[in-house]
Write a structure and sequence with these properties.
The complex is a heterodimer. By secondary structure, chain A is mostly helical. Chain A has a domain of about 60 residues. Chain A has 3 helices and no strands. The two termini of chain A are about 20 Å apart. The relative contact order of chain A is 0.10. Chain B is an all-alpha fold. Chain B has one domain. Helices cover about 70% and strands about 0% of the residues of chain B. In chain B, α8 packs antiparallel against α9, α8 runs antiparallel to α16 and α9 packs antiparallel against α10. The termini of chain B are far apart. Classes of the chains: A mainly alpha, B mainly alpha. At the A-B interface, α1, α2 and α3 of A face α1, α6 and α7 of B.
Chain lengths: ~100, ~425
Amino acid sequence: MPLLTVVNVVLWRRYLDATLNPGQGEHPISYALRVEHLPVWLLAPAAALLAAGLVAQVWSVWTLSARRVLPVPVPVKADRPADRPADPPVDPPVDPLAAYAG
Amino acid sequence: MSVLRRATVPRAPSPRRSVVGRGLAGVLLSFAVLATLQALTIHPFHPPDEMSHVGYALEVGHGRLPTIETPIPGREIPLLQHKVDNSRPANRTIWTANHPPLYYLVAAVPLRLGVELGHPTAGIRVARLVNVAISLAGLVLIVLLARELVPARPELWVGAAGLAALVPVFVQTSAIVYNDALMVALTTAVLLLIARVLRWGPTRRRLVLLAVLAAAAALTRASGLVVVAVAGVAAVVAVWRQDGRPGRSRAVRAIAAGGAIVVTATAAAGWFYLRNRHLYHSATGTGALLAKFSRLRRGTVPQMLLEQDFWRSQVRRLWDQSPSPAGKNADAVWWCLTVAPLLGLAFAGVRWLRRALPPPTSLLLAWLAGLAVAGLVELGAASFYSLGGTAHGRYLLPALSVLAVAAAAGVAACRVAGRCRSWPRCRC
């Protein structure tokens, strides 16, 4: 996905370069923004949002692929008072994604 | 109407909805950013067909249905007039008028508003952003379709939408005033309903929705006719498989269900294709359009399918929309990116054969319906190319959803193959 995102940005730049013919040394994207009366700083929040979206996608796919087990509640061991009987044996934590792996 | 019974099989609970939801939100965010940036920076009418599509929408906004010889109403938008004046005569008319009018009804609203309010360029921008919104809906539908086609692999639900959202031709055609984005959304919705009808049973609600959406697809692009045909066959198969009545009664009900879908689509969109036939002597108007642009016939469809130039042109245009080709190195990159998922699919196929665990028939049928749409759409593209048209990558977009799910499965299989030390003997 990150690779495809880079490909998209490169192709977008190439398209603008081929259709707008900006002057020597001028970046096609900043030139296109200027032609359309848009501030160049718009690219900063756009890049941040794009990165956030990519991170969310990659995290989701990675998590769902069961490469990383989601946090599951694990019983916390506490000091047992002397007059309380021992806790019954606890079942091992269940991997919620095990059924979906593979 | 007991044949349209309620689905009795309980659905599997959605695993980790929040994880899938966040992944989908990420897909939508990435796509929205990329497409919006393009919608704002690509100069109006630089994409070759945009002035014709805008002209069509402006005419529809006036309540008129244009023909391919209707002049583009440039006087309403100065920038459009300038573009028309600098175009060759064949490009001064609405050459895309062989398309059905549904998309233009949608695009006409912002375009007309822009003209009436004295900000026609803003109207074009808003029309483009409406297209982006339509594509976002299409991406949500792709996740739902993937959930039906690969129910046990939630990572592929997000992966399929993520891959679809990053196909450059989809990003760009969503960012300009073209009718392909609506076609993607409608075809995906139809394929989703086909999968549900086949897997969970043909309820009345599902069949009615299927008929309406298939009719809408037929009213958007000619490739919608393919979608209608597949939806009709799927309805017949679904009712035949799910109905418990005796043979003859079951057959009548199955044919009635499929027929209802085809009749609905014909009632909604048939008039337009009859009009095309009357005006251009063919239902799609392809011949008249190509004659207008002095295109010469290249050969037969089988010849085109075997011709390297057809595939090279289509693969290049699937990625790079730039007017000038990037060169052989870039072509090699496009081929690699296109073929890699296919290799993964081949690997997955080998694994599947070795495991000999056939998936349920209903799931296979749902896949078959999607692949049938993909195959028929590709045949349509080859037919257009054989008549002298261009092999645009966007002609494959109606099959984007099913191809994206297959590609996600292929990429996932590539990862497994990469990790596996003993392939192809292993059973991982």
